[in-house]
TrEMBL record:
Protein name: Replication restart protein PriA
Binding annotation for Zn(2+) 2: 390, 393, 411, 414
GO CC annotations on file: primosome complex
Catalytic reactions of this protein: ATP + H2O = ADP + phosphate + H(+); Couples ATP hydrolysis with the unwinding of duplex DNA by translocating in the 3'-5' direction
Entry-linked SUPFAM superfamilies: P-loop containing nucleoside triphosphate hydrolases
InterPro entries for the chain: DEAD/DEAH_box_helicase_dom, Helicase_ATP-bd, Helicase_C-like, P-loop_NTPase, PriA, PriA_3primeBD, PriA_3primeBD_sf, PriA_C
HAMAP family, alphabetized: PriA
Binding-site positions, Zn(2+) 1: 381, 384, 424, 427
Pfam families: DEAD, Helicase_C, PriA_3primeBD, PriA_C
Originating gene: priA
Cofactor note: Binds 2 zinc ions per subunit.
Gene Ontology biological-process entries: DNA recombination; DNA replication initiation; DNA replication, synthesis of primer; double-strand break repair
Keywords: ATP-binding, DNA replication, DNA-binding, Helicase, Hydrolase, Isomerase, Metal-binding, Nucleotide-binding, Primosome, Zinc
Entry superkingdom: Bacteria
Amino acid sequence: MQVSWVRVVLDIPRQDAFDYRCEHPVQIGQRVIVPFGSRQLIGVVIELLPAPALDPDQIRDVEQVLDDLPAFSASWLALAQFASRYYQRSLGEVILPVLPNGLRKPTAYLGKRSAGGPVARADRKKRSAPATVVPSPIVLNAQQQQAVQQICESDGYAAYLLHGVTGSGKTEVYLHAALTFLQRGQQILMLVPEINLTPQLETAVRARFADLVAPEEIAVFHSGLADGERLKAWADAQRGKLKVLLGTRMAIFAPLDNPGLIIVDEEHDASYKQQEGLRYSARDLAVWRAHQAGIPLILGSATPSLETWHHALSGRYTRLSLEQRAKTRFLPDIRLVDTRKAKLNQGFEPGVLEAIRTRLERGEQSMVFLNRRGYAPVMHCAACGWVSQCPRCSVHTVLHRTPGSGYQLQCHHCGFQSRVPSICPDCGNQDLQPLGRGTQRVEEFLQDIFPAARIQRIDADSTRLKGSALRLFDEVHTGNIDILVGTQMVAKGHDFKRLGLVAVLNADSMLFSADFRAPERLFAQLLQVAGRAGRHAEGGEVLIQTGYPDHTVYQTLLNNDFPAFADDLLAERQDTGLPPFTFQALITAEAKSVQRALAFLQEIREQAATVLADEGEPDAVCLYDPVPLRILRVAHVERAQLLIESASRPALQRFLQQWLPQVQAIGQKQRMRYFIEVDPLEI
Ligand code: ADP
Ligand code: ZN
Ligand code: ZN
């Protein structure tokens, strides 16, 4: 019998690898079922050992080597290893969570001696790809052509920032470039920020590549898929059966071994950042992956992140610009509606309502954008000042209309729900009022004043059921809707054909956020939502209600001058020593009381000073004072954070490497829950 020793990674926090004896043929990158304590776990073999590092008697046996899928390739393992090092997590905490459920739960395999698990075995049928290509119906303009040519002529790794206003034809550039790499026999990985954007793009991709790529060689990958669908897409990727993979951030980990081009659409979008578990940036991993594979990467955006813009200025990325809208030569007419002296009607300036009426009469669609779901952000008592508050969190509860005709208070942070009190809990006043408005209330109001209009609301509430987002967007696309009321869900990417008017209601609420990225985000969001108007005909109009029309964010939007805006912000970031000129990491501690969380952070901060002194670079890294989070308490847990900053990414990484084992020791001693985030987006 052949016996070997293997090193296996498991999904165990902050612990590296575990050694086992294996009596079956096994290779690096294979999944195995192993005993761990009293449990059985699936792990991945990362090393074959010439001899055991421990007393062989203490080493347990691999129970089963799974061969339902090919082993992970060295390049895929290298990606996982990089993510593990960079984001400061154990390798198992990277590899296992990115696998579809069926591939990491031993229950599906146990009792089946020869490895037949949840994935059907690969069929051996081979299909020869036909040589013909459907000609694209669109003739690229000069700038598009130039971009495609440059991308396709890249010699090895190259990162391109494809900067073009919404509707300038970036998608066409992606598709044309992708075609070239498909013809070379390579795979395409394309990331989009939103699940709801995948159907539109999938249809385009399938139609465009129909003669070159069989239907089963194109897959989508996102969290909205059922377990089985996700498993199938992953298994097809790992078996080398895919030519095109389209997905949201999680698709960056797909096991594709012959990629030719990686595309990240709307690269600035915050949804590329995973906000739990392994807190990775799919955009940044895409850069690493393209570099490792020696292939080009397209980062597309109308409003690039300042990180990307900075790289484009410094020459690290090549900037390709699309300066005109591809179809209509005109951008929508953006106007600021000054609300300071206006008498608002349910949040609408009268002229805005008139503009909607005009579009209705012309048979065109309007969109009302409001980044707040629910009926009203809070209930209050005018007599004593009581406001509806979540008992578990330090936030207000939001008033929602429920499917019947009742109302309910909901916490958007912990999910707490309660009925609406009939009298004020503090003073007994019987006249509690909703304060402010969300999408439900706006919808109700518009239906009141435009009774004949077909109104559709699209937000996280109206699209909760699987498939309903798709259906609602279809309604809008087919023209059965006159007024669309929505949150950021409707702002991204959609190409609505009859949409003439966009009205933005509460943009100012983002203007004075404490987050240093707020202006950048607001600008991106406004430009994106504005970009939905008039994509197919002239006369598109965007009305933005604001009490601060002179603010630079709005003024830049009017001039449509992203470069000037970005340059200003970059200068400011450089002066104040913020990203992209510095690099950050964040440790968040969670405890019953914020005092405990702060005390833990204070102690690890003192430890840090010793580490830095020992390394001989006491000033390479700066640790700020620990502070409570802006929303202090969520679900009875209080949170505080410690910001770590350095002018050098390698210095920050070196420091974290040295320091985190000590943080872990202190955390264990104090039984503190905490997590680390490298390159945090929100601080
Ligand atoms: P973006 O991704 O930059 O927002 P799209 O690629 O979606 O823009 O293009 C916007 C619209 O213009 C689409 O309907 C697209 O089919 C069309 N389009 C793109 N390029 C051209 C072109 N060269 N000629 C005509 N129409 C084009
Ligand atoms: Zn009261
Ligand atoms: Zn709550």
